[in-house]
Amino acid sequence: MTNNYYEFFCPVKVIAGKAALEHIPYELTGLAAKRPMIVTDKGVRAAGLLDPVIAACEESGLEIVAIYDDVPPDSSTTVVRDITKVYRKEKCDSIIAVGGGSAIDTGKAVNILVSEGGDDIAKYSGAGILKHPLKPFFVVPTTAGTGSEVTSVAVITDEKKGVKLPFTSSFLLPNAAIIDPRMTLTLPPHITAATAMDAMTHATEAFTCMAKNPLSDAYATAAVKKVSQSLLQVMDNPKDEHGRLELAQASTMAGIAFSNSMVGLVHSLGHATGAICHLPHGLCMSLYLPYVLEFNLESIREPLGELLLYLEGPEVFSATPASRRAEASISSIRKLRDALYKRCQLPRTLKETGKVLESQLEAIAEMALDDGSIMFNPREVSLEDALSVLRRAWA
Amino acid sequence: MLVKRLQPMVSHARRSYVGLMFQVMGRALQAISEVDEITRNETRALPVGFLFEMQVMPNGPKLIVEHTGNGLLHYHRDGAPRPVDLSIQFKHMTHAFLVLSFQEKTSVAFANDRMLVDGDVSLAVRMTRVLNRLESFILPKLVAERAVKEYPANLHLPEKLLSAARIYLKVATNFVETARA
Predict the structure, then answer these.
(1) Where are the alpha helices (DSSP H) in chain A?
(2) Where does the record place the Alcohol dehydrogenase iron-type/glycerol dehydrogenase GldA domain (chain A) (predicted)?
């Protein structure tokens, strides 16, 4: 009898491709929503990314009742409370989050308050607290990396207590994720690179960590293939709509993969580095990925070898001896990072970031050991192990 | 037919085994915090008065330990004196049995969604390390390798035997004290 067991859940309707935004009015109407509110940030608005969303709704006679465009990069309980007030004052009945991870997480948190009632979002922090479906909630991602549009988690900072509040519930998942290439067309090169490498890391860790399963594997490999094939093309031609859509889909697929199979040490180190040195998450992912794969190598040789097919294609895969494929996969990722460094100076080492001190490595290692994702890393990680990975990633 | 008739006995036996293992583990957690400095280094980071619980959902057997300060843990055999701070809950008795009979590693059980964490995840990770260290000490190496993700390479036989003997002695003493009380 097999001991294998897994769970897989993703009820999010994915609406992707050309003129995807124009499907929003129909989808909202299908959920009896008539008074949507947009939650976004100033950068998204300044880039003109709200215009096609608003136009798509207005052309179908659907009025956007309220727009909150002041979500900060690190959203807080105060912001969530403020948006909730606007939502209630304007008698909205649904939320459209337009933006990156912070806007999406904020939209999820606001949806808790407007659906469950009250003003204290901290009351709903934790896993499994929510017991009922929430209001109609749509997500329009404007970066291609976080995968937040298909994850059941949100993180909001409690400013008073100085802690990050996690919220986990399948009810946080949006009703629909709208993936439209117009929304990522103007992303600057270094953000395009870092967020795509975030998606690559989600997929790679989903495929090599302990909770991998056949369904998440399918999404993870497809995501790795799309990032490998499209990222450099988009870096060379940022207006490549097809390539942009491929990266956006890769991000969503990687999000589905990792939210069902979790991630490992790359994320543990990345979360700790982000907290201590304030480096962007995607950059941390790109930076640590090859070093962690080397650390895990003997535990993940087989799946990592399989990834070569999706990283480099069938010719390279078949020409590489099976015993060397795992190493070749790591080389392929290093090669991609070198190409990104050449194009936009995306750092490959901690030293290259210019924002990390060697004296901070121990603190990063200690914090990483207590990160939840370390539970799913295929190898046990001691403080010395984490430090040795960090030293290799230093320079 | 025979299987159907035996099922209640099997369920009862599993429940009894899981309950007994929780009693042993609770006392052993208290003991290892008294004999092992590395364990105390882990548990010192817990707030004083911190209550940790492992339980089988919904109202199955449980173990509760409290951090009483300086890394020392105290096993509460009569239940929690107040609401617990961190709870790791097995979704079903079968899942608890799989882990406590070393058919499934704790880390694999987490990966397989057999357990829920209610509370601070970073402290749950820390307590899992303590549980792994305990299992590495008190179980024969062959069994411990089935229970933990990686058997510690630096844990040598003399240290293991000495620590295990001290832990088992303290567990036995605690059981005797409980029986007398």
Answers:
(1) 24-30, 42-46, 50-59, 77-89, 101-116, 189-208, 214-236, 241-261, 265-277, 281-312, 314-319, 325-344, 350-353, 361-369, 383-394
(2) 11-181
What pLDDT, on the 0 to 100 scale, is given for residue A3?
63
- Quick: pLDDT tens for A281-306: 999 999 999 999 999 999 999 999 99
* Domain of residue A389, residue span: 187-394
Cβ separation B150–A6 shorter than 8 A: no
Domain-ending residue, one of A182, A213, A244: A182
Interface confidence (ipTM) of the complex: 0.89
**Helix/strand/coil for A229:** helix
Domains and CATH numbers, chain B: 15-180 (3.30.1050.10)
Q: In this predicted model, what pLDDT tens digit does every residue of A163-181 receive, in sequence order?
A: 788 898 999 999 999 999 9
Q: Is residue A388 located within the same domain as residue A350?
A: yes
Q: Which two tokens stand for residue A41?
A: 């940030």
Residue of B nearest to A129 (CA): B118
Q: Do B107 and A6 touch (CB under 8 A)?
A: no
- Measured between CB atoms, does A166 come within 8 Å of chain B? yes
* Alpha helices per DSSP H over A38-76: 42-46, 50-59
Distance CA A168, CA A334 (A): 34
* Structural domain count, chain A: 2
Give the DSSP H or E segment for B165.
helix B157-180
Query: Of the residues A182, A211, A234, which one is the last residue of a structural domain?
Result: A182
CB contact A14 to B (< 8 Å): no
What tokens appear for B101 in the block? 């009979």
Is there a domain that residue A3 lies in?
Answer: no
Q: How does pLDDT run across B47-76, given as a tens digit for each residue? A: 999 999 999 998 899 999 999 999 999 999
Name the minimum distance, in Å, from the CA of B80 to any CA of chain A.
21
